[in-house]
Amino acid sequence: MKKMGFRGSLFIIPILILIAVFSLWPVLQSFTYTFFDYQLNDRSKAGLYLNERFNVDLYTESSTYIDLFLDRDAENITEQEDQQKVEQLKSELDELDTAFEGESGVIEIDDETTDDINSVYKQADQLVASLNDKYELQNAESLPQIVNDIDRSLIESNFVGLDNYKKVFSDSFIGVALKNTLIFTFVSVAIELVLGLGMAMIMNKAMRGQGFIRTSSLIPWAIPTAVAALMWSYLYDGSAGVVAELFANIGLIDRPTDLLQTGAGAMTAATLADVWKTTPYMALLLLAGLQTIPKSLYEAGSIDGASKVQQFFQITLPLLKPAMLVALLFRTLDAFRVFDLIYVLTGGGPGGSTETLSIYSYKVMFSQTNFGYGSVIVMVMFVCVAIIATIYVKILGANVMEKS
User: Fold this and answer.
1) Could you give the angle at the alpha carbon of 40 between the alpha carbons of 37 and 42, nearest 5°?
2) Which of 227, 221, 194, 210 shows the shortest CA–CA distance to 281?
3) Is residue 47 part of a domain?
4) Mean pLDDT within 331-354
5) Could you say which protein family the record assigns here (predicted)?
6) Are 262 and 206 in contact (CB under 8 A)?
7) Are residues 113 and 233 in the same domain?
8) Could you give the CA distance from residue 164 to residue 33 in angstroms, rounded to a whole number?
9) Residue at 10 is within a domain
10) Shared-domain flag, residues 258 and 389
11) CB 45 within 8 A of CB 159
12) Structural domain tally of the chain?
């Protein structure tokens, strides 16, 4: 039996490998980024550098141009002392070129090499400044900039420890994005739960065309989110949108343009679009739970004189809690991570009034190319999702375990 148990456990190894590669590794990678000032738009921070490093290619290019420009101005440099300083600088640049011969890209260097590079940079900087004061050089403007590239070729460590996490507590945009995310999540999920439960109870009744009704009700959920958001953006359009015009006519908004151009209107519009799309999914999960409740319980309740309302609260809701837990958990976590719907519909506007944590993290990582701080925002989302899941399991899961 032990051999059979051991052999049986081997079958789960491929699953564990897939989980590790496609789930755990990306999370671990994102967690690693949070400890670095990792920015792709800054060449000195475009990697994860624990120690000081050296950009060999940048230094080699700078050294070549310095040699070339100084040779072009050799006739203009008349004082013998300055000529000797130029030759000494060129000699030291060549020595460093020789030391890094065969190397390319960004490499690690020791403290002694770092001191040598800094020494050459300071010498070149002082010499070029002196030559520009005394002589009219052909490349008087370009030469100082190229010399500065020697200093830029030294890449300092971008390990910042917990500084990115500290920044979260002083970032006002995080607070706004978290508030918007929580409002969107709990309002949309609450409405979806009520409507979804009503739809599930209707679809659970025996009626003609039951299969067609169940299938057609899932059409909104089957539509890709980006397509649904684009469709609703036309309906919400202030100049020709049917829904915007309808809301204005019945007095919900002053003008059709207010629906997407005001903070409250845009959040309401995004919530309604999400409710329309995902209520069928909530109904499907709850319908599966309703079908597990034995019909005999309702028959017994009717015999005992229980009304339909009493049966709903005494039989349906208690026995539906396991399915409700799954439905609420799935939908809340999905709504908390909302991105494509709001990105297509409002882009997080107007003025950040619909900007969620997902939208904010996307802007930081891909618009600002700041993957270090952007990963911290993702970790904030991870913690919030874990807290929400724990609360649901504690509140609903405890009752489910007691019933079982």
Assistant:
1) 75
2) 221
3) no
4) 90
5) Belongs to the binding-protein-dependent transport system permease family.
6) no
7) no
8) 10
9) no
10) yes
11) no
12) 2
Task: Please give the backbone phi and psi of residue 167, each rounded to the nearest 5 degrees, phi first.
Answer: -65, -30
Compute the distance between CA of residue 90 and CA of residue 93 in angstroms, rounded to an integer.
5
Assign residue 300 the CATH number of its domain: 1.10.3720.10
- 106: phi then psi, degrees, rounded to nearest 5: -100, 125
Which of 134, 155, 176 marks a domain boundary?
155
Indicate if 247 and 378 belong to the same structural domain: yes
Q: Do residue 85 and residue 231 come from a single domain?
A: no
Mean pLDDT of all residues in 72-82: 83
Residues 54, 42: Cα–Cα separation, whole Å? 15
What is d(CA 335, CA 275) in angstroms, rounded to the nearest whole number? 10
Q: How many helices (H) and strands (E) does the chain have?
A: 22, 3
Binning pLDDT at 50, 70 and 90, where does residue 78 land?
confident
Residue whose pair of structure tokens reads 């151009």 in the numeric block: 261
From CA 380, how far away is CA 288, in angstroms rounded?
A: 33
Closest CA to 371 of 28, 31, 20: 31
pLDDT tier for residue 8 given thresholds of 50, 70 and 90:
low
Task: Classify residue 244: in a domain, yes or no.
Answer: yes
pLDDT tens by residue, 261-291? 888 899 999 999 999 999 999 999 999 888 8
DSSP secondary structure string for all residues of 258-291 = HHHHSHHHHHHHHHHHHHHHHHHHHHHHHHHHHT
Residue with tokens 């995902």: 278
Residue 144 to residue 148: CA distance in whole angstroms: 6
Q: What is the DSSP string of 32-63?
A: HHTTB--BTTSGGGSS--SS-EEEHHHHHHHH
- Quick one: CA dihedral 279, 283, 284, 286, positive or negative? positive
Domain around 78: 53-155
Partnered with residue 154 across adjacent β-strands are 54
**Which of 130, 155, 180 lies at the terminal end of a domain, its last residue?**
155
Task: Looking at the structure, tell me whether residues 108 and 183 fall in a common domain.
Answer: no
